[in-house]
User: Fold this.
Amino acid sequence: MRVITTIKEMQNEVLKHKRLGQSIGFVPTMGFLHEGHLTLISKARKENDIVVLSIFVNPLQFGPKEDFSTYPRDFDRDCALAEGEKVDYLFYPSVDEMYPQGPSVKVVVQERTDVLCGKSRPGHFDGVATVITKLFHIISPEKAYFGKKDAQQVAVIEGLITDFNFPIQLIPVDIVREEDGLAKSSRNVNLSPEERKQAPVIYRSLENAKRAINDGENNPVVLTSLIKEMITGESNGQIDYVEILSYPQLRPLEKIDGSFIIAIAVKFSKVRLIDNIIIQ
Ligand code: PAF
Assistant:
């Protein structure tokens, strides 16, 4: 595996492989890799000649009061994990390399951002779309892999690919969970031991809602109340949102129908966790 820190060198390497007719699979991350990321990488490994992993904690997608400075980082461990998954290139640029003039131009996402995380994180998806646009230009992959845990991000990137005509196939990959159901996340390390015990209630509440739907409940208001009651009853987490929306359009639903997402965000003392289920 080669670690590359400059855009120029990354683009040159990509060009060499393109000339040889080799396909490129891309896994963008902010590092502190966990099993969820490794699942994305191993899928990319199976489906492409060359795998590029990027690690870049993108300041543009963090609000002023968010956890940019405390976002977990461990480059050596990430390198070892990426080597283990047979990544070909690890693109690891600095903030100056990515934004040498500050972000002088940014991508503004117009739709699907006034709900879920977009509501409480203004500008977050503009930051994501801006960095992904840059990374897509630098790496020019045929396929890009994103975890469904960030389902709103998947929907926004799908819109970005369509609107900006990127010749890239987005591959959404299922959520990887701990044994107790907690969705894997780099941020889980910031849960206290007590919170770690409580956090799986988020997934249990989703499963409970799914059961209620299977038993015939189709009112989103009833379902969100069920979820909220369970989370507040079994944890000290503060609910940021519980929403049921059409997917991938992310529009409110009067009653459960078609393809939809049940998405949750819960704030614990040092970390905000998200989870969801998408039901077709
Ligand atoms: O999901 C993430 O880790 C980030 O939002 C991404 C896609 C790498 C963009 O910075």
